[in-house]
C-alpha cells in the first residue's frame, strides 16, 4: 500500500512513531525493575496480562473500524498504554480487574474518540480512574508477597483460621512469592475460598496511603541512618527507589529528545514549590516534606511518562508549562486534601481537560506578526576598516 | 554551532561576522560533497535548445524573431511582459547561434512552472556571437544605467524565485535600502551551484554584488554564507580583501548551517535582526536580498556585456557516475546533462528539480533548464527512500520545534482535515514558507506540506468564489437600483406631463447668445470638434514622450 509522496520534501529524518514508543518502553524499564525487586512478580503479571488484553482489544476494535490491523498495532502505542496502566494498578490485582481497566482504556478512552492521536484523555489514566471509582477496595489492596505462614493452616470448628502460626519473611522474587502472585492474579486456581482469604490476609499490604507516607520522613534516610541496606526489599524504601528508577528513565527520554523538558520540569517544580510552601514541620496537619512529595509516591512516573503523553497534553511550549503547573498543583491538592490513594491519574485527567484551551491561547508569535512598526534594529557590527 | 566549529571557522575565515541564531530548522545530511569534487564544467553545445520564453502564470509574449530565422548568440529572441505586480519585461536571449525551428510548449525544470512556451533552436555549432559591448567603465555607472543593463540582459532571480532582478531593484527606489544581502546560503541538501560559483569565481561575484549595491543605493552590502562552506568562505574572504578596483564595502556574514536558513525573510532576520512584517516586501524594511548567482550574472552583464544565457546548475544523485556543476546554456534538456554525467540507466531514477526538500519532481527528463534551475537530481533509491506508511498524528510537536516561522503544524493539520478555514488562517497557514522541515521530522510520516498547499489552494479558490459572488451581487443590486430609478423617473415624468408648466418650457428654450450666434450653430460645433481632436492628439504625444523618457532614465524621477 506504499504510495509515493505527493510532493516535496522527498527526504525524511527516519524518525518513526513505533521507534518513539519503543524507546519509551525501554525508558520504563528501570522503574519497572525496581518495582519488581521490591514488590515481587505482581507487577510483571499485571504487565503481561494488560498487554495481552490490550492487544486483543485493539485488534478487535481495529477490525470493527475497518482499519489495517497490523499497521496500527505496529505503532506500539497500545503497548505503552498497557504498560503504564499495569504499572499504575496495584500488584496482585486479580486478572479481571486488569482486563476491565485496560479494555476500558483501549476501547472507550482511545478508540471511541477516534483512535491514536484523537483521544482527549490519557487512556491509561482513564482506565485507572474508572477502576478506582468502580472497585475502590481492589484498587487499594497492594498485596505484596513478603511473608508466608510458617506451618500448616488450621481451621477451627467454626471455620475461623487460627493465627497462631509464625510468619516468615521471604524474598519477593522467590518461587513461593511467584506462586502467591499468580494465585492473586488468578484466584480461581484455589478451590478453597477460606484458604484464599487466609492466604491473602497473610500478605503484606504495602498500602501507599498518603497519611502513612506523608507522616514519616524519608525511609531512605532512615534506612541509611539505621545502617540497613537500601535494597533490603522492605516496602518502606521501595517507593523512593522506584521513583528514582523512573526519574532515570525520564532523563533518558529527555536525552533522546522524545519528550521535551517543559512538562516534567513544570510538574516537578510546581510540586516542589507548593509542598515547600505548605510544609510546616511540627504542625498538626500533615502535609509531608517536599522530598516525600517528589519521591514518596508516583510523581516521577507521572511527570515523565504519563503527563507527557503528547496526544492528550498541551502542544505549545508555553502551553506545556502551564499544563505542567496545573497538573503539579492538582497532584498536591488531591494528594493532601483529597481522599484518593494517589493523585496522578486525576491530576493528569484534569490537565487533559485544560489542554485544548491552552493550545488555543498559548500560541507562539508567528514570524513577522505582531511587530512594532518602524523598529529597525541597529546594524549587527561595524564594518571592519579596509587596510 | 559547536565551539570547535566556531573556533576553526574563525581561524579559517579571518575577519568575519557571525550571525545570530534563528528559531527552529533542521540539519539534514547535505550530500554536497559529491558534486563539489570537480570544478564547474561547461557543456558541449547540444544539437537543440528549447529556450523558455513565457511564464505559465500569464503574461504577454512579444516575439522578436520569426520561425526559420537565423539567430546569433546573445540575440534577443522574445520579451515577456509578466502579469505579476510590479514586473516589467524580461528578455530571452539566444544562448548560441542557429535557426529557430519551432515555437511550442515544453516542460521546464522549475520549482513552480511546469510548462512554458519555448522557442526551439536548432544550433549550428558555430557559436557565432553578436558583438557585445562591454562596459569599459563599470565603476562610474549610475544606478539607473546598471538597472537598465540588468533589464536588457534578462536577469531574473537565480535562486529559484525567478523575480526579475531589475524590478526588484526598481522597487528599492521607493524605500531607502540600508542593507543589500547577497544570499549565498544554499541551505538545501545536494545543491552546490552557488558554493562552487563562489569557490571559483568569487571576484566576479563580489564585483556583481558591488554593482548591485550601487544599483539599489544600499548603505551596506553583506554576503551571507553558511559556515559549512569552507572553501567558498575562504575564496570570498580573499576576494573581498583583494578587491581594489572598487572601494569594496562588502562584508561577510557567516550563518549557522541549518535548513532553511536561506529563506529570504529568515535570512534577513538572521543577518540583520529585522523581522519583515508578514505580507510586506523586505524593501519596505530597508533590506534587499539577491542571490549570489544573480550577482555573478549582473557582473557578466555589466562588465562583459553578456546577457543571461547560461547558469550554473548542480547535477547530482545516486544514479549519476560523476555528479558535478555545469555552466549550462538555458534551454538544454535534463536528459542531455544526465547523459554527460554518466547516468546509470539500469537503475530507475526519479528526477527532481531544486533540492530534495523544496524541489519538484519532473514528470519526464526532457524538461529544459531555465534561469532558475539550480539543481537537478537523478535520485536513486538511496537518495529518496520509499516513504513509510502514514500514521496518525500523535501531536508530538517535533514539527513545531523545527518550524522556522513558529507555526504549529500539528494544529494546522487538524484544522486542514476538518477544513476549518478561519482557524487555519488564524494559525498562520499563509505564513507557511513550505520549507518541509515539519515533514522531514514527522515520526508519523504525514505529508504536511502537501496538505497545507492543498488547504491554501482551497482557501484561495473559495475566496475567489466569494469575491466573484460579491461582485455579481453588487452588479445585480446596481441593476435593481437602476431599474427602480428609471421607473421612478418615468413616473415623475408622467406626472409632470399631466400638469404642464408653461414657465418651465420657456426656460428650456435657450436665450439668444449675446454675440448674436445661435446656440446650435454649425460653425461652433465644428470648431469645438477640432479643438477636442487637437487636445487628444496633444495628450497622446505627451504620453509617448513620457514613456520614451521613462525607458531611457526612469530613475531620475522617483515618484
Written overview of the protein:
- The complex is a heterodimer of chains A (387) and B (559).
- Chain A has helices at residues 17-39, 42-64, 69-73, 77-88, 95-110, 123-134, 136-139, 175-185, 193-201, 210-215, 219-225, 235-255, 262-278, 290-295, 299-306, 317-337, 344-361, and strands spanning 143-144, 147-150, 166-169, 204-205.
- Chain A is mainly α and 387 residues long.
- In chain A, the strands form two sheets. Chain A has a two-stranded antiparallel sheet. A two-stranded antiparallel ribbon of chain A has the order 2-3.
- In chain A, helix 13 packs antiparallel against helix 15 (299-306).
- Chain B has 559 residues and is of the alpha/beta class.
- Chain B contains 15 helices and 19 strands.
- In chain B, a hairpin with a 5-residue loop joins strand 8 (98-109) and strand 9 (115-123).
- The two termini of chain B are 45 Å apart.
- At the A-B interface, helix 1 of A face helix 6, strand 17, helix 9, helix 12 and helix 13 of B.
Task: Map the helices and strands.
The complex is a heterodimer of chains A (387) and B (559).
Chain A: H1 17-39, H2 42-64, H3 69-73, H4 77-88, H5 95-110, H6 123-134, H7 136-139, E1 143-144, E2 147-150, E3 166-169, H8 175-185, H9 193-201, E4 204-205, H10 210-215, H11 219-225, H12 235-255, H13 262-278, H14 290-295, H15 299-306, H16 317-337, H17 344-361
Antiparallel strand pairs in A: 1-4, 2-3
Helix pairs in contact in A: 1-4, 1-12, 2-4, 2-5, 4-5, 4-6, 5-6, 6-17, 12-15, 13-15, 13-16, 16-17
Chain B: H1 3-13, E1 17-18, E2 41-42, E3 48-52, E4 59-63, E5 70-71, E6 76-82, E7 89-93, E8 98-109, E9 115-123, H2 143-152, H3 165-171, E10 179-184, H4 193-216, E11 220-226, H5 230-242, E12 250-255, H6 264-272, E13 287-291, H7 292-304, E14 310-316, E15 324-329, H8 334-340, E16 350-353, E17 360-361, E18 368-369, E19 375-379, H9 398-402, H10 409-417, H11 421-426, H12 437-441, H13 448-498, H14 502-508, H15 522-552
Parallel strand pairs in B: 1-12, 2-15, 8-18, 10-11, 10-13, 11-12, 14-19
Antiparallel strand pairs in B: 3-9, 4-6, 5-8, 6-7, 8-9, 14-15, 16-17, 16-19
Helix pairs in contact in B: 2-3, 2-4, 4-5, 4-7, 10-13
